[in-house]
Amino acid sequence: MEKKNSWFYHRFLDSKFAVVIFDLVLTLLAVWIFTKVAWLLQPAVNFLGIIAPPFILAGILFYMLNPIVNWLEKRGLKRMLAILLVFVVVIGLIVLAIVRVVPPIEAQVRSFVEAWPSYWESGLKLFTDLNDKQNIFSQSDINQFANEIKSWLSNRGSTILSGTLNSLSSIVGAVGNVVVTIATAPIVLFFMLKEGNKFTTMVLQLVPTRQRRGIGDMLHEMNLKVGSYVQGQLTVAMAVAMIFMLGYTVIGLRYGLIFGLLAGPLNLIPYFGSAVAMIPALVMGAIQGPKMFIAVIIVFFVEWLLETQLISPFVMGSKLEMHPITIVVVLLTAGNMFGLLGVILGIPGFAVLKIIVTRLFRWYQQVSGLYPKESPQTITQKVGPEK
Which residues does 235 contact at the CB level (< 8 Å), separation at least 6? Predict the structure, then answer.
């Protein structure tokens, strides 16, 4: 009783504000300690960097194919036979795409590479004409700027050469990683489809009995959120690619198949992807003439109308329940930290983190006793009526 009546108990132990500040200080201290010993985890980070790509690719394909396997299993087909049937159909579609779609795209790529010098000369001529018409910079200023660039290049020649060699070695390493990922992802995918439904059960066996229900609900919610997002984004991206490829082909845009195929993966980046996909098509449309430029804008308008009013609401809905500003902040942060992969995977990663933090906060509310349930009338009385 004496301890509870002491000033220390009333000022610190029985103060909600003091407890929150103390928890915040402990959290910051834990983060600071982690930054000091992060180098100990570097081998584990390197290991994850090696094994993560095939598992990520297999996970994405798992969310696309698992509903089909489950549907076939409900129709009376054994799961192993359903998986094999899905693999055969997917391989057949890949072969069909290689036979029917790849040759025209390859022809357009080859034509673009051959015509690139002429496009470069046209761009230089356009720049020269614009330079002749402008009065802001004189020819002596431009020559001085060109001489400074030449001097900078000559001084940095060795650095650029070593950087180029390092870039070539990085490209070779990246190609090797892509080959390994493509070769191992189907194997991982097969076992995910075969044993994926047992994953939650295996994880819950490692969790204390009293916590299994809460952890199971959290894993189920994470699976639903990530699965719906991956399925929706990939479906919308494929639809966007087909719409652009068809639209560009109808209007006769040069290299339309390339630009349409490029628009699909770029559409995986919310908000910014469509704007980036617009640039090369608009440039090529401007090169072909004003009519083609207007036709490209019309194709973009039709695609935007179909995507925003029909495809996205039907496929995606509002499954992640994220504010647009939150999405933009996540894209900027994840892109700065992890590059293109962070831009693509940042949204589902944030959704998973949001679920975990929300669950932890609910648990903290229950065990801390700092958040007693109050009716809206009580809160209004404490804060004051609205004026």
Answer: 311, 315
